[in-house]
Amino acid sequence: SVAIKYNNKTTSDGYINVKGAHNDTIMNVYNMSGCNIYSGQATSIAVKAGVYIVTLSNSTEETKAVKVIVK
After folding, report:
1. Within its chain, how far is the Cα of 23 from the centroid?
2. How far is CA 51 from CA 2, 22, 39, 48, 70, in A?
3. Whose CA is closest to 18, among 2, 39, 36, 34?
4. What is the pTM of this model?
5. Nearest to 16 by CA among 64, 5, 25, 59
6. CA quadruple 43, 41, 45, 37: dihedral positive or negative?
7. Where does residue 37 fall: left (phi above 0), alpha (psi -120 to 50 degrees), or beta otherwise?
8. pLDDT (tens digit, 0 to 9) for every residue of the chain, 71 residues total?
């Protein structure tokens, strides 16, 4: 799984996980084709192995984007 501690991203096992995010944090996940495959509360989602762009944003911070490789 991908454990995202809001500023710390790691990968494995087909999941993207966000931990430690504020309740109002919105997560968007994009595949390498640019398609948005998830938009909603920062949580744990199952994804196929691949490369993704994950953006996290809330009302008090600017949007942060990272490249995540899921195995």
Report:
1. 15
2. 12, 25, 17, 9, 6
3. 2
4. 0.80
5. 5
6. negative
7. alpha
8. 344 544 445 455 788 888 777 788 899 999 999 999 999 998 888 999 889 999 988 877 778 888 888 87
